[in-house]
Amino acid sequence: MVAPASVGEVREAVRRAAEDGLRVKAVGTGHSFTAAAATDGVLLRPQALTGILGIDRAAGTVTVAAGTALKDLNRALAAEGLSLTNMGDIMEQTVSGAAGTGTHGTGRDSASIAAQIRGLELVTADGRLLTCSEKEHPEVFAAARIGLGALGVVTAITFAVEPLFFLTAREEPMRFDRVTAEFEEHFAENEHFEFYWFPHTGNCNTKRNNRSQGPAAPPGPVSAWIEDELLSNGVFQAVNSLGRAVPAAIPAIARVASRALSARTYTDIPYKVFTSPRRVRFVEMEYALPREHAVAALRELKAVVDRSRLRISFPVEVRTAPADDITLSTASGRDTAYIAVHMYKGTPYQAYFTAAERIFTAYGGRPHWGKVHTRDAAYFAEAYPRFGEFTALRDRLDPDRRFGNDYLRRVLGD
């Protein structure tokens, strides 16, 4: 295990590993459910490579060291009067880990963390440092924004940013039949729309985030604590523990839990609206589907759960993203909807995930690179029209598979 404190030390670690015949992987905060960063060789921990390296206000970009946590980046940007355009709902990851696995939020027009990248630095298998952008090594830039750690070690990322703005969030319970019937309408009318369906019920909770003039009007401290801590973490933890101990009680618990959250509206700066504290542990599978198939797939999933003996205590999350041009992005070349299924830690998840994956793959789904799935290189060669571009680039940049591991062998081939 090595914790390099400079780009030079990263390059030296890679060169030394090559001399010793060892493989190399960089790891972020361990947020992924897959073994994407596992290695039997040298594990690089980038936590000493942190902080903003430069701000170009004229270009609307900020360059940040790869080991910087998203939460630290967001706070630093806010202090500078700047913001990312979109975010996922968790910000514990490093910027390189989040980008490299395709972390995303929800958006009609704005896409994943990686789609906001305008340049990056990459240490390749021979110890070289490549600076990549649309103009410099564009073929590497097209792939390395979501590189799975297969092309090299990312040491710095340049993001597009914009002046700090306000988002107004409207959270509202809604029936499953209504939200699915009106899905395209909600998508079209809101900059950021997502919803959660509670299995064993016909209930959903929706969230619509749209830009506003402000001023900030965050939830009051008491109501925020009740919604975000007591209900979403404390009570949710307790009911999941009860469900794990007494699975037969889960449908009744779900009916109560799905009615516990009430409608609310608040306004704040982006990262405080996009992200939420998530302390209840779970296992997750998420698939990206062509957006036009999302409702049909979700209805099939509901039908499977309703007629089965499965007991699901976690809600199903539905989000969207516009098409992008990143080689192995789950939204590459197509407008996308994401359906994520979860199970509470310590509960058997295989039967549920297998049933869900069967539905998602029937619609040409692409699994999130950092979440549970069973797909392999043969499947991805069909699911991604530009898959061959990525593997050919990998052959050129890392012919000896210095950055390989068992997970990459499965999803990318030998």
Give a description of the structure:
The structure is a single chain. With 414 residues, the protein is of the alpha+beta class. It is built from 14 helices and 17 strands. The longest helix has 25 residues. The protein is globular and about 60 Å long. The mean pLDDT is 94.
List keywords for this structure.
alpha+beta; eight-stranded antiparallel sheet; five-stranded antiparallel sheet; 14 helices; 414 residues
Q: Numbering strands along the chain, what is their spatial order in the largest sheet?
A: 13-10-12-11-15-16-14-17
Biggest sheet details: 8 strands, antiparallel
Runs in which pLDDT lies below 50 for 5 or more consecutive residues are: none
What average pLDDT do the residues reach?
94
Total strands: 17
Strand content: 15-25%
In short:
With 414 residues, this protein is an alpha+beta fold. The protein is 34% helix and 23% strand.
Secondary-structure blueprint:
Blueprint: H1 7-19, E1 24-26, E2 42-44, E3 52-56, E4 61-65, H2 70-79, E5 82-83, H3 95-100, E6 117-123, E7 129-132, H4 138-144, E8 153-160, E9 162-163, E10 166-175, H5 176-181, H6 183-189, E11 192-197, E12 203-212, H7 221-245, H8 250-257, E13 264-268, H9 270-274, E14 282-290, H10 294-307, E15 316-321, E16 336-344, H11 350-362, E17 366-367, H12 377-383, H13 387-397, H14 406-412
Parallel strand pairs: 1-2
Antiparallel strand pairs: 3-4, 4-8, 5-9, 6-7, 6-8, 10-12, 10-13, 11-12, 11-15, 14-16, 14-17, 15-16
